[in-house]
From TrEMBL:
InterPro entries: HTH_LacI (IPR000843), LacI/GalR-like_sensor (IPR046335), Lambda_DNA-bd_dom_sf (IPR010982), Peripla_BP_I (IPR028082). This is LacI family transcriptional regulator. It holds the Pfam family Peripla_BP_3. Residues 5-59 form the HTH lacI-type domain. It comes from the Bacteria. Keywords: DNA-binding, Transcription, Transcription regulation. GO terms for molecular function: DNA-binding transcription factor activity; transcription cis-regulatory region binding. PROSITE patterns: HTH_LACI_2. It comes from Leifsonia tongyongensis.
């Protein structure tokens, strides 16, 4: 089929003229945002690519973080590298320094570099950025999405709600009824799902939920003891804490030590992620294992498949979380 015939089909599906479809394809102004979005989706559905974008790509996968702070970033790098090596690709790592997003002009710069594909971590892109990458045949996948990605956006996540429920259920089964939560930013989908899972477990056990015991705390100062001190300095302090990351859990460890509380004798702590450092904590940390390496592996595999088959369906995969019981939890004294 000729380019004109393909573009004509796109225009018909989007209910616009061929001239308007061409404007969207070539990033020209003069198209209303809602029309541009409709045409972009039709272009993607038809696998349309601007002439000349079939050039050889650079043999690398770009892994983009908002910030490189945190041990969990390395787990994702290890997973992506493992798959990249198997396909004679390399992995480059960068940080956007933009909250849950990418900087203006980022997508155009990526298009010029022509990588094998892009993996974005806990981020999203504008419709224009998505169109820029698709029209240049640069596949992208989002790992651990910050929000709810559009149906046509490939993404890899994990069962955060089930993980939060498993953490709370473990503490409840030990006999804890007053449980604090140190959570991440509540504008992250993963944080909300983990806290919702916690709430569901409490509700299923007919236990009251004290919202004053649920503290949201940014990742920029993740290891801070401050949230834990706020919880544990109360006269009605919790007997257990569920932290939505292992690093936050270690902050709770420091808070307990500073107040003369022993883990798990005086306080039980459950983390989330199961980073390598969790097993070396004192005492070893009970945590919910999030398969970070496997998530990155699946994302890299999907990038490779989308590079070979641009019209392949956009997968939305959630990998299973599981509770890992160690020595930081016990029955309340």
């Amino acid at each position: 089929m000729s380019d004109h015939a393909t573009l004509e089909a796109v225009a018909r599906e989007a209910a616009v003229s061929i001239a308007t479809a061409s404007k969207v394809l070539n990033d020209r102004p003069g198209v209303a945002p809602e029309t541009r979005e409709r045409v972009t989706k039709a272009l993607h559905a038809h696998g349309y690519r601007k002439r000349g974008t079939e050039q050889a790509f650079s043999p690398q996968i770009e892994l983009v973080y908002e910030s490189l702070d945190g041990e969990w970033t390395m787990e994702l790098v290890r997973g992506a590298v493992r798959v990249a090596n198997a396909h004679d690709l390399t992995v480059t790592v960068s940080e956007s320094r933009v909250r849950h997003g990418v900087a203006p002009g980022w997508a155009k710069a990526v298009s010029k570099r022509q990588p094998a594909g892009v993996i974005l971590v806990a981020s999203d892109m504008s419709e224009n950025d998505k169109h820029e990458l698709r029209s240049r045949n640069v596949p992208f996948v989002i790992v651990d999405p910050a929000g709810d990605p559009a149906p046509e956006v490939p993404s890899i996540g994990s069962t955060n709600w089930a993980g939060g429920m498993a953490a709370a259920r473990h503490l409840i089964e030990l006999g804890h009824t007053r449980i604090g939560v140190i959570a991440g930013p509540d504008d992250l989908m993963a944080t909300r799902a983990r806290v919702d899972g916690f709430r569901s477990a409490m509700g299923a056990a007919n236990l009251p939920i004290d919202d004053s015991l649920i503290i949201s705390h940014e990742f920029s100062d993740e290891a801070s003891a401050e949230p834990g001190i706020r919880l544990l300095s109360r006269s009605d302090r919790p007997t257990a804490i569920f932290a939505t990351s292992d690093i936050k859990a270690l902050g709770a460890y420091e808070a307990a030590r500073s107040l003369g509380l022993r883990i798990p004798h005086d306080l039980s702590v459950v983390g989330y992620d199961d980073l390598p450092l969790a097993r070396w904590a004192g005492p070893p940390l009970t945590t919910v294992r999030q398969p970070l390496m496997e998530m990155a592996q699946e994302a890299a595999k999907l990038v490779v498949r989308l590079r070979a088959e641009p019209r392949a369906s956009a997968d939305r995969i959630e990998l299973v979380t599981s509770l890992v019981v160690r020595s930081s939890t016990a029955r309340p004294a």
